[in-house]
Design a protein that fits this description.
14% of the residues lie in helices and 35% in strands. It contains three helices and 16 strands.
Length: 252
Amino acid sequence: MMERLLAHRAEGRLRPPAFEAGVHARRLRHVSPSARVEIKNGQRGPVNHLDLDPYEDRFLLVAAGDATVGLYDLGATERVPQDDDDGASTGPLLRVRSLQVTPRASVLGAGGTRDNTSDTAAGVAASMALAARGPPPTEGHRYSVTSVQWYPLDTGLFVSGSTDGTVRVWDTNVFANAGTFDLGSNVHALALSAAMRTHSLVAVGTDDRRVRLCDLKSGGSSHLLTGHAEAVTTVAWSPTQEHLLATVRPQK
C-alpha cells in the first residue's frame, strides 16, 4: 500500500493532498491499543474529553462523567509485571497513574506540572479571582464534565465545561479553581485559540443555541454569537487567525 502511494506520487499521478490523505488513512487502519502502556484511570464514569498539553506532549487532562477532571503525567510510569494466559512473563507493563483529580465539592492540593516560564497563566488566574471580588471558589463541577482544554500559552491554567452550566478556570500549580462562569445552560464544548494575541476568550457551545465568549481576563461573558437554531455541540478556533471561529450544531 505504502509503496504504491510512493510510486504514484513519484510518477506525478497523485497530488500532495491526496498522498497525505492516503498516508493518514493507512495509519488509521493500523492503529491498535498499546500492549505495553496502561493509564490507570482514577476517575469513575465515562471519559468525555481529553486534552494533551501542546508543549511537552506529556500532561493529559481527562474530563469524565463523574464531574471530575483528572491530570495524568504520561512521562511518569511504574513498571508492573505482566504475564500471558499461560502464566509466562511477557515483560513489564508501564502504568500511568493520575497526579490529581478534582472532586465535586473540593479540590486536592498541589503539584504535578512544571512551573511555567511566563506569568501569563498566573496573571489570568489572578485576574479571574479579582473579577470574582473574593477568594477563588474551591468546589468542582456538580455534573458531568463535557470538555477540557489547556490554556494555549502555557500549562499553568486549564478550563473545563460541564452540564452543570458552568465553565471553570483552574490554576494547575495548586490545582485549585481560579474562577467560574455561570452560564445557566448545559455546556457541550469549549475552545481557546492557539493563535490568541490580543484576547483571552473561551468560546463555549451550550444548549441555548448561542455561542458564549467568556473573557478570562475580565471574568465576564463578553459576547453572545447567534445564528444556530439548536444547541451548539462543537466549537473550534482557527489555528492561524485569532478572531476566526467555527461552530457546529447536531445533524438530524
